[in-house]
Write a structure and sequence with these properties.
992 residues, alpha+beta, 14-stranded mixed β-sheet, six-stranded antiparallel β-sheet
């Protein structure tokens, strides 16, 4: 036996001896049962203030060396601990002790840790990585978030996905279609449009094990093989390009079966970096099938002497965007750069270029394939032989967009080893999918300071997060609420790098606390805080970095989903998660964080001269985050039908910009501070015509985003009724499966295919549904310019607060879209998005009385004022007496057709068709209004042909009005929009 083993055995015997003495002392000194019962009762009352559950038991007491160690049941660990409640708990427990223990120290344990250890700021041994150059740096970004998440690498994912069920020989969801969505898609509505951009705006590199681009098209450009006339080119400078010695990517197959790795079937190219001299380039020029926005991925190989500043340039419709990629990590997979707009076809203005220019010469630069767009799933699956039941199955792909598929399939397409994505050796895709995510984290972190002894992609991951929704139903429309899960009880409570796994608990606590606090403050004061569990879930257990699994709410519970389907709620929750991650990382790295600002409001444009416009906006302060104040702003510009540029920094809440005549300029603004960049403002547009016939002020009054219409009858039926109002997605929606068909509350869940109450259709689950783009001044403006008029635009709020004077313009075009008063959830707070707030009514009234003309279009211009729970006389009088219309009926058209009719004010001749169902091009209007003339000299100019209800009116007194019961921008054909606008403008500007 070795000497070290003798010492270890002796130590163990000594520990047993001391333990026996401790238990002997315990028998001699113990607390009376009445005392422990009193402490148990108190701790239960403390826990119940936070989390529902059973009583907190005192499992054992050990008194030794003037210390009373109380071991409470695991349920006590479910609550959040902070210095304040920890100090209060100890004070109250000490008061309950017998007098002879007055001078004793008390330690309270639960689930292996002292309660003070659960305070998120308690760890001194923090989880940090060596931060040199991050994987991706956007060098075209005009700011740095050095007190945000700059340089940090985060791994996160959006729950489940479409997968192949071998036992049934079919592709299917991992959860049920309930309340118009399915968890496999639902959590994407937080992660993709909100959470990932927030983290990236804070400077983080965010990695996902699923496709993040919802674009159905995919173009692969590679040095080995290209399709569809896409081209790969090389240009030799001082250094030549050569073939690499190890395998690279090649897209040689239409589909891939288990174990086939596209990153092992081709070659890659390499050259040497230079710091001066003639550069060498390679170019990837895609043949874009359709003009639109596409995600751009690059790939390369990591070699022994790889460069850490590979210079990529993406040429797109908004200009050029440069990135520096650290090729010492991330080789052999897809690396996401961002979303860019490309024009249809094959041209030099839309391409990706790599240069060998570097700060250090003599390093290795590698180049492999570029991927543009998300595409369709290309992993083919079939049942195991034992499951075929003598049926001759052929391997089949999902026939679904890749973004809908589970992580297992993306990881194969991304070159990850099959030991990561196929943990069951291909026998169980369901299990492979949820297991692969945690092992993927370790794979991409392998070789870094996280896992220095393991192979992998060498990316120093700081944390991981799984975003899920849960199951469960309450019978009384109460909230299921938010659950956090972590796992510390493995590997002696430590990560592989020796850091304490308790960091995972702190991460879970910080994120869930931000979520619950923000939901209660903004939406639902009674939002339920569920426990923080320390349990062995694969996604929480496997990653060797601080990790949490979030169960935000129950997708099966109607009360939860009335909030959960609302984009405002999704934004707020995502911001809560971002803040929790930011504060966790800032604590680990010991720096003072700054929270990125909220979007600006009150945006307006104004002509300074014929060729200069002034932009004004108002910063939005976050009352809950004192650091979230803007210190500067980024102004983004788009010309005509191009895309936005990389932005310019301005120090104040205004800017003046030169424009050229006859071009439509569009602008958006984001607020910036040391923590990062806010989401952008709405988009405003302007054009000064050379030979203008007149000038129009376009006012965007459509800022609604919302969940679909819902209703509840406590004892019988409830649900979402999107046939009345689908709600308004925020720009786009990819969590919608189809309309709810089962409204009976008593219908039980019997399986994913028969989910009972809330059951929903599947006809839209691969459709990216268009929503509010916040870009409708451009749509209206194009038609105005086509008719020969100039225009400028503003937000409604800028009119209300007096930034913009309507009286400066002969005609106002008020966009109301699907604006209507809307509650969130059960409606604890007052509704938002009224068509005509009182302040706007006052401005319009004064404008019209001074001879101003106005065009109004919107789906709820009548019903929002007449058909609500508390109609106001002032609202009805305003519409009737000033705008010269009154409400006739809601849900006036099921077909989306409009016909012009004879009137003294003909503005259009013929038929119009507008979008009336969810689709990929424009938001749909399910329930347009029928409005009829009010007062003298007001006439119907359009009717819905299916019932001859009045669809629009025009009036002329000492001013002119035109009001449409359907939004102008949802008219399907651009030619029809142009002709209609031309007719309306001719009427408005005609001198009678």
């Amino acid at each position: 036996m070795s000497f070290s083993k003798i010492i270890n055995r002796s130590t163990a015997l000594l520990f047993i001896f001391i333990t026996c003495l401790s238990f002997h002392e315990l028998k001699a000194q113990n607390l009376p049962k009445a005392v422990t019962a009193d402490i148990s009762k108190y701790l239960t009352s403390v826990a119940r203030q936070e989390v529902a559950g059973k009583a907190i038991a005192i499992d054992s007491v050990i008194i030794a060396k003037k210390t009373i160690n109380l071991y409470a049941g695991v349920e006590l660990s479910y609550i959040p601990f902070r210095k304040k409640n920890v100090n209060e708990i100890y004070a109250q427990v000490k008061r309950r002790l017998p007098k002879e223990y007055k001078n004793y120290t008390v330690a309270i344990y639960t689930d292996k840790y002292k309660i003070e250890d659960y305070i998120p700021s308690s760890l001194n041994d923090r989880f940090t990585n060596r931060l040199d150059k991050p994987l991706i740096t956007n060098t075209s970004r005009p700011f740095e978030a050095d007190r945000g998440l700059l340089g940090h690498h985060l791994a996160l994912w959006q729950s489940h996905g479409w997968y192949y069920e071998q036992k049934l020989g079919r592709w299917q969801w991992q959860r049920a279609r309930i309340f118009q969505t399915v968890e496999d898609l639902y959590t994407q509505s937080y992660v993709l449009p909100y959470l990932v951009p927030m983290l990236e705006n804070a400077g983080a590199n965010v990695l996902l094990p699923r496709e993040r681009d919802t674009q159905l098209r995919e173009i692969i450009i590679d040095n080995d093989h290209n399709r569809n006339q896409s081209t790969y080119k090389e240009k030799k400078g001082k250094e030549k390009w050569a073939e690499g010695e190890t395998p690279g990517f090649a897209n040689l197959k239409g589909t891939y079966q288990d174990g086939e790795n596209p990153f092992k079937t081709g070659t890659f190219r390499q050259t040497t970096t230079i710091s001066k001299g003639k550069e060498s380039f390679c170019e990837w020029i895609p043949n874009i099938p359709e003009t639109g926005k596409y995600g751009v991925y690059v790939s390369y190989q990591t070699l022994e002497n790889s460069t850490d500043d590979a210079l990529y340039t993406v040429y797109h419709l908004g200009g050029e965007t440069e990135f520096k990629i650290n090729q010492t990590m991330g080789g052999g997979t897809w690396i996401f750069l961002g979303f860019f707009s490309f024009e249809e076809g094959n041209n030099d203005n839309c391409k990706v270029v790599l240069s060998n220019k570097s700060q250090k010469s003599g390093r290795v630069l590698t180049a492999d394939a570029v991927k543009i767009g998300g595409g369709m799933g290309n992993i083919a699956r079939s049942p195991l032989p034992k499951e075929t039941n003598k049926i001759n199955y052929q391997p089949t792909t999902s026939n679904y967009p890749r973004y809908t598929e589970g992580a297992r399939y993306w990881l194969q397409w991304a070159g990850v080893p099959d030991t990561i994505y196929s943990r069951t050796a291909g026998e169980n895709d369901y299990s492979d999918d949820f297991q692969s995510r945690g092992f993927w984290v370790n794979y991409i972190a392998g070789g870094s300071s996280v896992l220095p002894e393991k192979g992998g992609l060498n990316i120093p991951i700081d944390l991981a997060m799984a975003f899920h929704s849960d199951a469960g139903i309450t019978p009384n429309d109460s909230i299921i609420g938010t659950l956090g899960i972590c796992m510390t009880h493995i590997n002696d409570e430590k990560f592989e790098n020796g850091k304490p796994r308790l960091a995972s608990r702190h991460l879970a606590d910080m994120i869930t606390d931000e979520i619950i606090t923000d939901i209660r403050q903004n939406y639902e004061p009674n939002w339920t805080r569920r426990p923080i569990w320390n349990r062995s879930y694969s996604e929480a257990r496997v990653p060797e970095v601080p990790t949490m699994l979030l169960e935000l709410l129950s997708h099966q519970n109607f009360a939860d989903m009335r909030y959960g389907l609302d984009p405002q709620f999704q934004f707020t929750v995502s911001r809560s998660v971002y803040k929790g991650i930011l504060k966790f990382v800032a604590h680990q790295y010991d720096y003072d964080y700054v929270v990125q600002p909220l979007p600006v409001t009150g945006f307006s444009l104004d002509f300074v001269t014929d060729t200069k416009v002034r932009l004004n906006w108002i910063p939005t302060l976050d009352n809950t985050e004192p650091t979230a104040k803007p210190t500067k702003y980024v102004v983004y510009m788009r010309v005509d039908n191009g895309d936005f540029d990389n932005g310019e920094i301005v120090p104040y809440s205004n800017a003046q910009i030169e424009i050229q005549k006859d071009k439509i300029y569009s602008f958006k603004v984001a607020a910036v501070n040391d923590g990062g960049e806010s989401f952008p403002s709405e988009i405003l547009s302007v054009c000064r015509k050379s030979n203008e016939k007149g000038s129009v002020l376009v006012v965007n009054g459509f800022d609604r985003i919302s969940a679909p219409a819902s209703f509840t009858m406590q004892d019988s039926i409830a649900g979402f009724w999107d046939g009345i109002d689908h709600g308004v997605p925020d720009k786009s929606q990819y969590n919608y499966t189809g309309s709810q068909y089962e409204f009976r509350r008593d219908m039980p869940y019997m399986g994913n295919d028969t989910p009972g109450f809330g059951g929903s259709n599947a006809d839209f689950e691969t459709t990216v549904v268009a929503g509010n783009t916040f870009d409708y001044p451009y749509v209206h403006g194009k038609a105005i310019v086509k008719a020969g008029y100039s225009f400028i635009s503003t937000s409604r709020d800028a009119v209300i607060n007096g930034q913009v004077n309507l009286n400066n313009y002969p005609l106002v075009d008020l966009i109301l879209g699907k604006q209507r008063q809307t509650y969130i959830g059960r409606g604890y707070f007052v509704p938002d998005f009224k068509t005509f707030p009182a302040e706007l009514q006052s401005k319009i009234t004064n404008y019209c009385k001074q001879g101003g003309n106005i065009l109004v279009s919107g789906a709820f211009v009548g019903s929002d004022l007449w058909n609500n729970e508390n109609p106001q006389r002032e609202d009805i009088d305003f519409a009737s007496n000033i705008l010269k219309y009154k409400w006739q009926a809601g849900r006036a058209s099921a077909t989306g057709n409009v016909n012009s009719v004879a009137s003294p004010f003909p503005v259009y001749k013929g038929e119009l068709e507008f979008y009336n169902r969810p689709n990929t091009t424009s938001y749909g209007v399910e329930s347009p209004d029928a409005i009829e003339p009010s007062g003298d000299n007001s006439y119907t100019i359009f009717r819905y042909p299916e019932n001859n209800l009045s669809a629009g009116i025009a009036s002329q007194t000492n001013y002119k009005t035109c009001v449409l019961g359907f939004p102008f921008e949802v008219i399907e054909e651009e030619d029809q929009r142009n002709d209609l606008m031309k007719g309306i403008l001719s009427f408005m500007f005609r001198k009678d």
